[in-house]
Amino acid sequence: MPTPISERVQKHREALRAAGLRPVQIWVPDTRRPGFAAECRRQAALVAAADHADADLANLMDAVLTDLDEWR
User: Fold this and answer.
1) What is residue 29's predicted lDDT score, i.e. its pLDDT?
2) What sign does the dihedral 54-55-59-61 (CA atoms) show?
3) What is the pLDDT of residue 21?
4) What is the pLDDT of residue 66?
5) Which string of b and e fits 7-38 if b means at least 16 CB within 10 Å?
6) Is the pLDDT of residue 68 over 90?
7) How far is residue 17's CA from residue 71's CA, in Å, rounded to a whole number?
8) d(CA 16, CA 33)
9) Can you give 52-71 as a three-state secondary structure string?
10) Confidence label for 49 from pLDDT (cuts 50, 70 and 90)
């Protein structure tokens, strides 16, 4: 007779804990929710507008790209 799922899950969790890991629950936005995509677009537009208005950020990004080219 096969081992019940709950016992297999418990054994797996015990093995993970023995390896020094612990369970963590993470709550994330529900991408299926109505209005999710519209909210993403709204926030992305705000960030893009802020980036466009910040000349110092553009200069920083250019400097970083130059530094990356030197790493190769």
Assistant:
1) 94
2) positive
3) 97
4) 84
5) eeeeeeeeeeeeeeeeeeeeeeeeeeeeeeee
6) no
7) 40
8) 33
9) HHCHHHHHHHHHHHHHHHHC
10) very high
